[in-house]
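Sequence only, no structure available. Ideas?
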Amino acid sequence: MRILVVGGGGREHALCWAISASPLCTKLYCAPGNAGIAQVAECMDVGTEDIAGQVALAQRLKIDFVVIGPDAPLVAGMADGFAAAGLKVFGPSKAAAQLEGSKSFTKELCQRHNIPTAAYERFTDLDKAIAYINAQGAPIVVKADGLAAGKGVIVAETVDQAIEAVRDMLAGNRFGAAGASVVIEEFMEGEEASLFALCDGEHVLPLVAAQDHKRAFDGDKGPNTGGMGAYSPVPILDQAMFDRAMREIILPTVRGMKAEGVPFKGVLYAGLMIDGNGPRLVEYNCRFGDPECQVLMMRLKSDIVPALIACADGGLNHLDLRWSDQAALTVILATKGYPDAYKNGSEIRGLAEAGKVEGVEIFHAGTKADGPRILANGGRVLNVTAMAPTVEEARARAYRAVDLIDWPEGFCRRDIAWRAVGRKP
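Reply:
I predicted one. C-alpha cells follow.
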C-alpha cells in the first residue's frame, strides 16, 4: 500500500515510524512532515490544515490509505474530504470529531447516555458566567468550548482567576472562535490517565493506557501545554479500573454516537479522572494523544496498519493487538518560552549520540533540516522516548539521552512519571 500521513509533529513521527515497519506499506509519505519524519517517509510540502491540497496530493501520489494525525484538520472535516474523493481514510468525520471540537457537544452526549463526567454549564454571556462562578466558588475549571491547541483549559484555584479566564475568553477574544463560548465545570479531584480505543463505528478495540504531564514545569507547576511527557503503563489504571472505564465511558459513547447517526471511526482518546469512586470523563479527543502516541507505538508489538484500516473498513472485532510488557516513557524537549512566546531557528546538536542510548528512539516534533544541521521549528521540538523493563529504568534511559543533546535554547521537565516511580503495587 501507498500510505499518506497528514501532520508534522511528534505524534506523526511515531505513527510514521510504526507504519514504515509494516510489510503492507510499500511507500510512505508525510505532509508536511519534519526533519525526523524525513528519515522514515518522503515529506511533501502541503499544510496540515489544507484539505483541498492534501486531497489533491493523495490523488496525485495514487495513495491507497490516508492517516490523519492532528485534531484541527479532523474537526475541520478533512476525513470527509478524502472520503468524498473516494480515498480510504483513518480518522472520524467532521460530525463525529465534534467529540473534540466542541466541549458542550460531548457534555450533552454524556448527559444523554449517563456517562460519568463533571457537572457543568455552558455560557456565551460574560455576566452570566461570572454569576455562575461566584455561586459555585473555587477551585473550578474554565474551558474554551472549541479547539485551543491544548491550552484552552484553566484550572482556577480562586474565583478571581476563574473570572479572569472567562473574561479573557468571552470578552478578550483570547482563543478567537474557540473561546466564543465557554464550559465551566466542577473541579474533579483525583489522578488523570489517558485511555485509547480504536473504533470502526460499531466495534471497539482497546489499546493500552498512558499518563500525560500537561503543566510546563516540574511538580505540575506552570501553564498548561500540549503535553511535556508521558509514560505507559499507568499504575492508577489497573485492569479492573480499565475494564470499568471501557464499560462505563468508552462503550456507551460509541453506541450512543452510532444510535444518533454519527458513527465514530478512528481512535477515541478519553482523558479520565480517577478517584475512589471510579473513572469520570474529563474530555474526549478524536485522535492519538501527543505525546501519548509515542509511548503507545513503542509498546505496540503488532503491525499497526491492519488495525488502522479496520477502523475505516469495519471488522475490528476480528482483530487483536499484542503489547510489550515493558514500560515506555517520553520526555518532551521544548523551546524556552513555550507555551508562550518562543524563538525558532536554534541549532540542536548531539542527536546521533543520544539516539544510541539503549532502548531510545527520538521522535521529532518541531524540527527542520538546514543542510546537515537540525534546527528547532516549534514549541515542542523533540520527544526523547525510551523502553525498559520498568518505568524507573525507562526514565533513566530517556534522561541519559536528553543529557547527550546539546541544545541550550531548550528545556524539559525532570520529573516525568513521578506518580509511578517508586510506587508500590
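Residues 191-318 form a domain with the D-amino Acid Aminotransferase; Chain A, domain 1 fold (CATH 3.30.470.20).
Hope that gets you unstuck.
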